């Protein structure tokens, strides 16, 4: 199994690149944002509570998203690997994920961190707001709040995985295909490293 975290601020291209990576490597895409938006669309009690928080650009409680990931891992046993997008977003989520994966005798293979300048992120979100229907894209104050929360709560997740020597930083600006190529190169390098370690 090879598991990837696609890491980066709102608008950095996690969703865009995830679609391409899951197809290329046969991974199961787990986006907590997408799961939450589907709960909202289905008007579940969880979705209704989450919507109030997401519309403010704040984070849904750790227990809620960890529970969602835990059941998704149970539901998709036997896949080639997972691609985590928008999760983990706090150190507590990262620690919980590490535990859940280790119970399944696996771990994170690589954390790919997309780096995009703040003004480019805002420009992308403003543009996406025209078509996404996402209420958290519609207002620039909410976009800025999401970025603030990212810097405060989510950047420490990279520090957590840097200690495990798992973080690869990549420029997330430029053509989508070019970024996809760079991500693929890093994934294949780490997959090969894992293969060699398993054979030792
Ligand atoms: P979530 O859905 O995870 O959103 P996000 O992290 O804010 O990121 P986005 O989905 O906005 O951006 P992305 O990086 O996927 O970029 P994309 O590919 O779309 O979270 C939403 C909310 O849910 C959170 O605020 C929180 O409330 C809650 N939540 C979710 N997970 C949680 C968790 N684990 N814990 C607690 N709460 C959680 O690209 C953006 C745009 O740019 C698109 O229009 C795209 O076409 C364009 N684009 C992509 N690549 C390029 C490129 N190379 N050049 C130009 N444009 C590009
Ligand atoms: Mg996304």
Give the secondary structure arrangement, pairings included.
Blueprint: E1 3-7, H1 14-25, E2 28-31, H2 32-41, H3 45-54, H4 62-75, E3 82-85, H5 91-103, E4 108-115, H6 118-132, H7 140-162, E5 167-171, H8 176-199
Parallel strand pairs: 1-3, 1-4, 2-3, 4-5
Helix pairs in contact: 1-8, 2-3, 4-5, 6-7
Structure described in brief:
60% of the residues lie in helices and 13% in strands. The protein is α/β, with parallel strands linked by helices and 200 residues long. BIS(adenosine)-5'-pentaphosphate is lined by residues 8, 10-16, 32-33, 36, 53-54, 57-60, 65, 86-87, 89, 93, 124, 127-128, 136, 146, 174, 176, 179.
What does this structure look like?
By secondary structure, the chain is an alpha/beta fold. It has a single domain, classed as Rossmann fold, CATH 3.40.50.300. 60% of the residues lie in helices and 13% in strands. It is built from 8 helices and 5 strands. The chain has a 5-stranded parallel β-sheet, sandwiched between helices. The longest helix has 24 residues. It is globular and about 50 Å long. The two termini are 17 Å apart. BIS(adenosine)-5'-pentaphosphate (AP5) binds next to helix 1, helix 2, helix 3, helix 6 and helix 8.
